[in-house]
Amino acid sequence: MARPVRGTAPGPAPVDPATVVPVRIAVALSGLSDEDLTFAVEAERLGADSVWVAEAWGYDAFTPLAFLAARTERIRLATGIAQLGARTPALLAMSAMSMQALSDGRFLLGLGTSGPQVMEGWHGVPFGSPLALTRETVEILRTVTSGERLVHDGAVYQLPLPGGAGRAIRSMAPPVRVPVYLAAMGPKNLALTGEVADGWLANAFMPETASAFLEPLADGATRAGRALSDLDIVVPVGVEVTDDEVEAARRHARGYAFTIGAMGNRSQNFYNAAFERQGYGEDIRAVQELWLAGDRERAAERVPLDLGRRTNLLGPPEVVRERISLYRSAGVSTLQAKLTGSLEERLTTLGTLLELAGEAAEARR
Fold it and tell me: How far is residue 229's CA from residue 77's CA, in Å, rounded to a whole number?
């Protein structure tokens, strides 16, 4: 794979006006207060496509979505992400099938491997081989949700367990389709996502250097006999419609100091590796060294402004509209908006974002 040149555009193919569709706008649920849950319900009214609930080491991702399934009618409900290894694949499948039944088919199962700090420190599960864990979990999920008897002979899972009293069981629930989205950043996991998933959850993504992600993703899709466009590419973005683009970009860039310094260790940090493949290796190493030395303020100041500006939608309406078009040209089909402020402020920003997404699609026709 050719190394992407820092700051270069992905070079999209010419657009056929007849096929132009607006990028879908999703929202991330940041908490479980009454205001947060009201925001999700109101986001449906405004026209958001989906709502994504995260899972770290606080609340789980499924329970809030079950709550929202009873209070919404159209918006799709997604885990963003449920941690692989925290549950058995069969339990994941059971939860997903329950959500599909409760939501009348609106559920999307977002999965990711998290990292050794969380899996081994919080769940007490060896991190092991993320690639094999991901592949086998998806295979078992598809077996269970399709109504087949669960038999699996893999490197991570053997079902039924050999030499025991276990039997090959078929789910008591009726078969159902569960779209699977994978959060992946490394080339091998990206290729696996292109091969087996319905969508990709993209972190550390910048449309200017999209090929760092899309080339391995497309390789995996080709291996499975399909096109990259068959995947729903979901990119989380902070959104601020503001006249002070530089100040907003600096604030968001500073926030990456924690990601670079603490989301992993000196030798293994998936975010850092992703930024390095996009041409920011020297900057990332400098930020990490400052953070690990305990100088967090200088670490935050050392984060390149590009990381704040290019991974988010920041600036006046015309700038936000232009960047929405750039994401769409790079192949992104869904932008997952991370909004802050009061309920009224978040809804106002979401309404503006939906309008700008529509205008960006019209401009490409």
Answer: 22
* Interval 164-179: pLDDT, tens: 999 999 999 999 999 9
pLDDT digits (tens, 9 = 90+) for 64-77: 999 999 999 999 99
Query: Would you place residue 20 in the very low, low, confident or very high pLDDT band (cuts 50, 70, 90)?
Result: low
Q: Which of 63, 105, 97, 111 is nearest to 170 (CA)?
A: 97
The pTM assigned to this predicted structure is 0.92
φ and ψ of 67, to 5 deg: -60, -45
Instruction: Report whether pLDDT(106) > 80.
Output: yes
Distance, in Å, from the CA atom of 216 to the CA atom of 251, rounded to the nearest integer, reads: 31
